[in-house]
Amino acid sequence: MTALTELQARMIESVRISIDAANDYFNQSLVVPDVRFDLRGKSAGQARFEYGRAYGLVKKAKPVIRFNRLLMEENPLAFVNEVAPHEAAHVIANQLYGRNIKPHGPEWQMIMRSVLNVEPSVTHQFDISRASPKPYVYQCKCPGLTHSLSAIRHNRVQRQKSSYLCRKCSSRLDYTGQTA
Ligand SMILES: [Zn+2]
Ligand SMILES: [Zn+2]
Prior knowledge:
The chain contains five helices and six strands. By secondary structure, it is an alpha+beta fold. It has two domains: 6-115, 2-Layer Sandwich (Zincin-like); 134-179, no CATH class. The strands form two sheets. Strands 1-3-2 form a three-stranded mixed β-sheet. Strands 5-4-6 form a three-stranded antiparallel β-sheet. Strand 4 (136-139) and strand 5 (146-149) form a beta hairpin. Helix 3 (76-97) crosses helix 4 (106-115). 25% of the residues are buried. Bound molecules: zinc ion (2 copies). The site of one zinc ion has 8 residues, from loops.
């Protein structure tokens, strides 16, 4: 288990703040979901509920929120301010109203608007084309050759925590300012 990044910690905090707001609003003590950052593909986030199988155990559902780390690192503010409350609202609605409501139905929308003060938009306006696994274009000293770096590597370079070398010319890769 690696240490949380600052952004991951802020996301977990944002989810917790949302759950706390619902607890105050509804006078409840809702279960705080586990938060993971292992979602891939085009979705920004996903709320999952793991139900107990035995009769009557539905209330022991264990909520899990998964975030798309790649999209998150490219859209940190939108994730903290919109995606985290969006997924938290699913967890809140599920605990208050059960599993048979529509995911983005009136209950979820009311929680977004009235409890979390976030406009309930169903899809996030992220540029999916940039969800390419290695969107950042770097160059070395080889003529005409470019290299593609992932968001994680790009961020490490930008924070001057890493640099990467071309295997052919052994020169350092420099960011071109462009994304694929
Ligand atoms: Zn949703
Ligand atoms: Zn090179």
